[in-house]
Amino acid sequence: MTSPNHSPEHNHRRVGRFMGFIAWGMGLFLLYLFFQDQIQQQINPNQQPMSRQTGKMNEVVLKQNRAGHYVMSGFIDGTPVIFLLDTGATDVAIPESVARDLGLKPGYKYHVETANGTATAYQTEIQSLKIGTIKLTRMPAAIVPNMSGSEVLLGMSVLKQLEFTQRGNELILRQLR
Question: Where would you find the membrane-spanning parts of this chain (predicted)?
């Protein structure tokens, strides 16, 4: 004799509810992935910077993010990183955790002035820095232990080697080859 709680109809309803729950969970997960990608695109609209080679120039066109900053994906010594263009920075400034992931070795210790006051930094050198078709080699950089976030600041030591023009919400970087 079958108990009323374990009838075939009851079991089909339980399986149906379970499948509905799984479908609902998958839908939420897919929405999360979609919106996560949208948020990342707003933070870093230059995940694959538009690049071209014209004549003797490498050119990269960057778009501002919603906050008005130029954030872009690139590479340091062949490893992917996120850069934030900072005209107020003298050198390339790398958070300590990112420098560790890149295998950069800290050199001599010195002090730097930041928007938040004086900070300790350690000299290092980047063998290659790449944004789109632009590639720079043997760049001086600073490892900054208490720097928050994971973005690498691109300072004037990089920009002085490039020609750059801002028009509207775009920045064009050019490098002579």
Answer: 15-35
Whether the CB-CB separation of 161 and 150 falls below 8 Å is answered with no
Domain spans in the chain, listed from the N-terminal domain onward: 4-43, 50-176
Dihedral Cα 84, 87, 88, 92, nearest 10 deg: 50
Contacting residues for 41 by C-beta, under 8 A, at least 6 apart: 47
Q: Which fold has domain 50-176?
A: Cathepsin D, subunit A; domain 1 (2.40.70)
pLDDT range class, residue 41, cuts 50, 70, 90: low
State mean pLDDT over 131-151: 95
CA gap 78, 170 in Å, rounded? 26
- Rounded distance, CA 137 to CA 126, Å? 7
The least confident of 24-28, 48-52, 106-110, 171-175 is 24-28
Cβ-contact 94, 45 below 8 angstroms: no
What's the pTM? 0.77
Cα separation, 74 vs 149, in Å, equals 16
